[in-house]
Amino acid sequence: MKRYELPQLPYAYDSLEPHISKEIMNVHHDKHHLAYVNGANAALEKLENGRKNSFQDTDIKAIERDLSFHYAGHSLHSIFWPNMKSGGGGNPGGAIADKINADFGSYDGFKVQFTGATTTVEGIGCGILAYDPLSDQLLTFGAEKHNLLLGPGTVPLLVCDVWEHAYYLQYKNDKTSYVNAWWNVVNWEDVAKRFDKSKQ
Ligand code: MN
What we know:
The protein is mainly alpha-helical and 200 residues long. Helix content is 50%, strand content 12%. Manganese (II) ion is lined by residues 28, 32, 77, 161, 163, 165-166.
């Protein structure tokens, strides 16, 4: 059975300073993301074992909940890291910029909407810009945890993690300042690549 692996960060831990500190990146990637990878693999193993005796004495519902939570955490963090880069930010260009303008009216309109969706996530979760192949349009989600209030079938393009582990060591309870600073490290080339791929 296949297992998940923790991807390397595509840059050094201190690359996103001063917007996101080295300490946060260290703990976030090496501890939190790793925990999602291990959690997803543990769930797969439990399912594998469960199949050996037709899931007798196995709480399949609990395992599936674990798999959904940890898999979604792994998947979204795998997008979140390359979504950022040193010297990022600014405005997108090319097809993704045209699509943002077409679907949200303007880049500024999108930015206010995405920031709002992200900073108002109840409890823990992340803001997501996703492409919806059903309607050929971009959607924003304020996802709770990793796996609630997401649109099935949509393709996440841009993820902003607003779990407390993503900002608390540096921004304390000021989530809005963190999200405002995060815009300075958005890697629009990566978002553009994901958008091109999502349309294939
Ligand atoms: Mn996180």
